[in-house]
Amino acid sequence: xxxxxxxxxxxxxxxxxxxxxxxxxxxxxxxxxxxxxxxxxxxxxxxxxxxxxxxxxxxxxxxxxxxxxxxxxxxxxxxxxxxxxxxxxxxxxxxxxxxxxxxxxxxxxxxxxxxxxxxxxxxxxxxxxxxxxxxxxxxxxxxxxxxxxxxxxxxxxxxxxxxxxxxxxxxxxxxxxxxxxxxxxxxxxxxxxxxxxxxxxxxxxxxxxxxxxxxxxxxxxxxxxxxxxxxxxxxxxxxxxxxxxxxxxxxxxxxxxxxxxxxxxxxxxxxxxxxxxxxxxxxxxxxxxxxxxxxxxxxxxxxxxxxxxxxxxxxxxxxxxxxxxxxxxxxxxxxxxxxxxxxxxxxxxxxxxxxxxxxxxxxxxxxxxxxxxxxxxxxxxxxxxxxxxxxxxxxxxxxxxxxxxxxxxxxxxxxxxxxxxxxxxxxxxxxxxxxxxxxx
Amino acid sequence: xxxxxxxxxxxxxxxxxxxxxxxxxxxxxxxxxxxxxxxxxxxxxxxxxxxxxxxxxxxxxxxxxxxxxxxxxxxxxxxxxxxxxxxxxxxxxxxxxxxxxxxxxxxxxxxxxxxxxxxxxxxxxxxxxxxxxxxxxxxxxxxxxxxxxxxxxxxxxxxxxxxxxxxxxxxxxxxxxxxxxxxxxxxxxxxxxxxxxxxxxxxxxxxxxxxxxxxxxxxxxxxxxxxxxxxxxxxxxxxxxxxxxxxxxxxxxxxxxxxxxxxxxxxxxxxxxxxxxxxxxxxxxxxxxxxxxxxxxxxxxxxxxxxxxxx
Lengths: 440, 311
What we know:
The complex is a heterodimer of chains A (440) and B (311). With 440 residues, chain A is of the alpha/beta class.
């Protein structure tokens, strides 16, 4: 039985100058790389596959299996692209990881590149996090200086360069094929699959795209073994991961635990819902994962547990909302986000999210009409699953789940403005004047 | 400076402002654009960084900047414009010396982000996507910036300003206007927006070592584990007051010193189980202030101009 919290990735975040190479090496940093270079590339891939590591960026696809899809006989160069475009509402784990310990990621990139046979890797970081970009730029420069990057790394004959690339503000670039288009210097719009990136990705060459946390988990797996990794977590959701608690919780923050911890346990560690209030609803893994309620507090927060409840583990971004929160307002603001971030390529998403916002504004203002709930759900049916990528699915998931659990609040939108039903000022973290209408 | 007259509107949609040809792009800029293009296996991959560089030189995406990128990459200006107008970080009208973002995606909005935006807008006397007439500050409504455990969040030149309140926001804006040095709560001393854009383009400014490793919420789980004696399998069990814990506390305190946060962050450095919790907001609604009445609450369509063009 493992401990309730198991800091691995977060373990050095409080160390002095934790982002620098000397600090990272003091904690055993780059030992995993040395070990990996004594293994065969296939051996590294097998270890990651056997560990059961699944993608930490939302989809939960087995990381090692993704690597093994790269065809060995393709004559083109192979590429590894790290997805650091962390933008899913509620998600805030990769940013602190890259800020506090960028070398964990860099070491992971080198080991993963060695396994896949990559000689040019990219770390694509969203542009709106200047200091994170600085830290990762510096970590890559330090690693190159120390001989962990460049030619003949540590005398192994393996060559690798890492390019740190800042995005320019587009949630959609977190979608892996849109990210590739963006990295090719184009508008970030998703591609139709097949072909999958493993076969034809960046520059139509075999490409692996992994989330920051997934890649950052690789060094510890190589260093300490698959059995150690598998001793944490559940049967199908192995290992440790970072859970992010935010919102109406006494002490929001990052918690690294074996997969399968429950929200009840996490809330207890975070001091509970803010004083004098109760949980109303939460997202298990960002706004694209259907919301859940108090009845789901004891479900394991792993891939299967969340799927079983009709939701998804997603990015493990647990946004906590208490009883003061208007579900209608929150849903509107999420859908406004998806409307703003829709890349415009697929009509159902581009037009549909615009219409959803119009309807939800009516619900918020108390001017929706009888039958609008059904109309809105019908609209959702015509958006979800009808676009190239999952943005559209995320946009409707928050709507349909909100109606499922809080239909009466939407019905109230036939008569009563949301800010009268649940005065907005009560939800704020600080004392604010009473609300008299929707905000801008 | 390009000598540009600061105009105060840069809509999300529409093209780059071709009516303003001013530019500071010179041979040095061209050389740096070529250098960026040379860093990638295929030059066009450098287009996003190149556009960041254009902004750092011209304070916006300028017609000359578009031409320069097209020339260096051997693609058409239409192809460059198509990219420049897709991404929200590229500004089509001059942004201010400092570019301020207020997160109003669901969670930050609920936690007080809406009030922060309203406060900032009123204090500066400008609306969303506008720049103050003196060119010092521009204001943007931003989407989730991956700092939800620090909500509500503001950004200045894409540096974090965590755990904001209306009072802190006003003080921050005054400091930015006066030219007082400001530190990000989890980053460096603030530069200008243009200098930030240069770093994003791929030219480091040597400030990576400024600021803390992490903010207090980022370390919360680690601290709880230390206090409880929990560890990953095979790791030494920490004692309540381990070395790591002491260092973490030092950093947390350093962060608080810098940000001026105290009471409402204390629970993060105490044992959470026994820690006092943040006080709930007052249940009795304060009387409506004249300011609240004049709040720009019904300006959705005017502040989000893309809607008009989309339909």
